[in-house]
Design goal:
Order of helices and strands: HHHHHHHHHHHHHHHH
Largest sheet: none
Number of strands: 0
Helix content: over 70%
Number of helices: 16
Distance between the termini: 22 Å
Shape: globular
Number of domains: 1
Strand content: under 5%
Length: about 350
């Protein structure tokens, strides 16, 4: 069963991410809206992860229930591979060519390092190996390393965690992991120096690993298992609640204690994205059809927005182009390229998967 609200949530998440990266990568840190954009940006990836926690666990449950363990797991991984890999590999190949031959991004990289980067990206392990967000001009790849690891873990959760209280324990352990970062445990284990220029980057790297992000995936699972949904409410009240949640999160995220603690930051973020998810995931809102469409193509939007921003930054900003022109050009290019990616690459993967399943059936 396709839930219309999921596409709206995906649309919101990808808009939050793109808006943040637009301001960040094009050097708009002095813009008065920048702090609020950063706050919205904090919601993007966690919202994607809570959606993934819900949908992936549901997918595993459906496959195993209807096909048995062996065939169900096989069917589940086939769906995941054809869902993620085609668009990612096409994006990777094009990004690599642009970065290597046109943008000069890898001019200082050794041949061996480039080969290792290619192999690690093809296997979705680059974020774990190099603790960096992406290759060349695409910093969006880091989340796919976490996502692919979650795809592997999710079936194990379904098969071996039989009591719901163990999910609560995992949720608690996730926040205990954040607490350990706050208390300097990682500093001791990995000999981190607080005065080092990359100190906070290292801490954020640890916080974004699966032991930390598991709190979002687990929350998605719990919502699936208990089918949490709010009593139908009027659209004015729904919009008011959504705006209130986002406004409250923005206010919280601008406080000093939020910025200084990984526990508080992720607890506040989890409450916000879980509330948005519960309000919207079963809700069909015809007026938000554009946001729903953006959610439909959100994976391609996510893959392509950063390469486009880097190209604009390199070739248009030096010429003091109008910000309105850059914004319009960015939106046009992003929607055009992402639409092509979705309808010709992603959907081709869907059709190929169905064809192979039909032949085997």
């Amino acid at each position: 069963m396709h839930l219309k609200g999921i596409d709206i949530l995906r649309g919101l998440a990808v808009c939050f991410v793109i808006l943040y990266h637009f301001f960040e990568l094009l050097g708009l840190q002095e813009h008065p809206l920048y702090p609020y954009v950063c706050s919205l940006g904090l919601l993007g990836v966690p919202l994607f992860f809570i959606i993934s926690g819900y949908l992936i666990y549901r997918s595993v449950d459906y496959s195993i229930t209807n096909r048995g363990v062996k065939n169900g797991i096989k069917n589940y991984f086939t769906h995941r591979i054809f869902r993620i890999v085609p668009a990612y590999y096409v994006n990777f190949i094009i990004v690599f060519i642009v970065a290597y031959y046109f943008a000069g991004t890898m001019e200082t990289w050794s041949f061996d390092f480039i080969v290792k980067q290619i192999l690690s990206h093809l296997t979705f392990t680059s974020y774990f190996l190099y603790q960096t967000s992406g290759l060349g001009i695409n910093g969006a790849y880091w989340t796919l390393s976490i996502e692919m690891l979650w795809y592997i873990v999710a079936p194990l959760f379904l098969l071996f965690i039989k009591k719901d209280r163990y999910f609560i324990v995992l949720l608690f352990l996730g926040f205990l992991y954040f607490y350990s970062i706050d208390m300097g445990v990682m500093d001791t284990i990995f000999h981190l120096q607080k005065d080092a220029s990359n100190y906070m980057a290292k801490l954020f790297f640890f916080s974004f690993m699966l032991p930390g992000q598991i709190v979002y995936f687990i929350t998605g699972i719990l919502i699936y298992k208990y089918h949490l949904k709010v009593t139908p409410i009027s659209k004015p009240l729904l919009y008011s609640l959504l705006i209130s949640i986002v406004a409250a999160f923005i206010y919280l995220s601008l406080q000093r204690y939020f910025l200084e603690s990984f526990v508080i930051r992720n607890w506040g973020t989890l409450l916000a994205v879980a509330s948005l998810f519960i309000l919207l995931y079963r809700t069909k809102i015809d007026e938000l059809f554009l946001l729903s469409w953006l959610g439909k193509i959100s994976y391609s939007l996510y893959l392509w927005h950063m390469p486009i921003l880097f190209v604009l930054k390199k070739y248009y900003l030096p010429h003091e182009s109008s910000w309105w022109l850059i914004s319009i050009l960015f939106i046009v290019l992003l929607l055009a390229i992402s639409s092509l990616s979705y309808y010709f690459v992603e959907e081709s993967g869907f059709r190929l998967r169905k064809k192979l399943e039909k032949q085997k059936g």
